[in-house]
Specification:
seven-stranded parallel sheet, 9 helices, 7 strands, binds NADPH dihydro-nicotinamide-adenine-dinucleotide phosphate, Sc_DH/Rdtase_CS, NAD(P)-bd_dom_sf, SDR_fam, SDR family oxidoreductase
Length: 268
Amino acid sequence: MTTHPLFDIAGRTALVTGSSRGIGHALARGLVEAGCTVVLNGRDPRALEKAAAELGGVGADRADRAAGAAGARVYTAAFDVTDGPAVAAGIADVEERVGPIDILVNNAGMQNRAPLLEFTDDAWRQILDTNLTSAFLVGREAARRMTARGHGKIVNICSLQSEVVRPGIAPYAATKGALKMLTKGMCADWGRYGIQVNGLGPGYIETELTRPLVEDAEFSAWVRGRTPAGRWGRTEDLIGALLYLASPAADFVSGQVLYVDGGMTSVL
Ligand code: NDP
């Protein structure tokens, strides 16, 4: 089998935030399969070890590799993406232990479905921190190094709710809409340093986050009916789009959001 060289990302190092499960884990798997060295992130070190084992086990660190030790190309870095000092320390540790980050995927996120009138101040701050501030903190820290090196790819995991909203999910949509504009802003600021920043916007994808919706027969049927593809998305559906945005094939693509939603954002 031959792969066009424009899609070759073998040997690059990628950090995927929120990759202990769900979409992040599937994207990490795709990057490993494409030949990348991948760093998994989340807050729970034990969940990360388990997730790494599923991808072939944790690799040898830089010193071990220099000494000739072989190992899988999967690493773990447990830190909270909403905590500025933890992010700074986490990124420094990854670069020290694994090597320069070529590809950053800002995927960590949460959902909180509640009517806006009942949404508390704390809940608002938590969803803003988790879905938006995290991308600023991790993106800034990674980009400080990428700008110095003159290249880098950043992919922010947006949502179809970066474009449209339904009752009961306004705060989530607000964070994802803002993440789309942060993507464009990062593109504007960092393009001159050889960094491309894009968004990937999943539609309704079956994961732990959406389990209550999948299990709600009425809602689940609504998703299938509203989606031109006629089904829920699977985490694997997102891998091809990520590999494209992370590859040299997308070197002149920046500030865009690529929606992978079975067509849902295009229909009324
Ligand atoms: P999951 O809840 O299944 O996974 C979320 C991941 O993020 C976990 O690995 C979790 O690990 C990690 N995480 C959460 N908070 C933090 C934090 N503060 N610091 C570090 N890691 C954190 O969600 P999905 O896989 O479904 O969603 C992933 C992304 O995709 C999110 O940004 C979501 O908004 C987006 N998305 C999802 C859609 C869907 O239909 N599923 C649709 C559109 C967008 P831990 O809890 O151990 O820290």
